[in-house]
Amino acid sequence: MSKPFSSPRTALAVAAVACLALAGCTQSPAKHDDRLTKAAGIARVTIVCSKDLWNETKPDGRNPSSETVTVKATVSAISTGPRADRGLVEVSMTGTNLVAYLKELDANAHASKWNSTPENAAASRRVYDAIAPAIDRIKAASSPDDPEPEIVIDDTIPEKV
């Protein structure tokens, strides 16, 4: 009867597979999977943030620790009102695109200790930490005229109630 991992070659192969499996892991926050499920059921959501923050965190398909992520979003600069001169944009997307965005944010913000820290980890963590509780608070619409949820990420603007 042979012993498992009896040859150095077999042991090395098993170790390599284990490392590859760990390399794609993240340390996702509690309730992450529940948020993904809830986000999938949202028709549309708008995220208001600086243009630079969006550009830093939008999925570009280059994250080696996650599957290729495509997010379709409409981005428009805010050109009127009190937010006009702050460099903010409105990023509108469907719930299924929000799911893809959250997966990308999670991979970048909560990388496993076995992975290197992505350059945009701090920005991704900030966006994830703003979106997560907003998704948790979303309630079913009371009428068809209810506006889509809006998540504002600007620490100088008081949070909407």
How would you describe this structure to a colleague?
The protein has 161 residues and is of the alpha+beta class. The chain has helices at residues 8-23, 32-40, 51-57, 95-109, 121-137, and strands at residues 44-50, 74-77, 88-94, 150-152. It has a 4-stranded mixed β-sheet. α2 runs antiparallel to α4 (95-109). The chain starts with 7 loop residues before the first helix and ends in a 9-residue tail after the last strand.
Brief sketch in words of this structure:
Helices cover 40% and strands 13% of the residues.
| SSE pattern, N- to C-terminal | HHEHEEHHE
β-strand number: 4
Principal-axis shape: globular
Radius of gyration: 20 Å
- Number of helices, counting only DSSP H or I runs of 4 residues or more: 5
Q: How would a crystallographer describe the biggest sheet?
A: 4 strands, mixed
What is the average of the pLDDT values? 80
Helix percentage: 25-40%
List its traits:
5 helices, single chain, 161 residues, alpha+beta, four-stranded mixed sheet, globular
Please write out the topology.
Elements: H1 8-23, H2 32-40, E1 44-50, H3 51-57, E2 74-77, E3 88-94, H4 95-109, H5 121-137, E4 150-152
Parallel strand pairs: 1-4
Antiparallel strand pairs: 1-3, 2-3
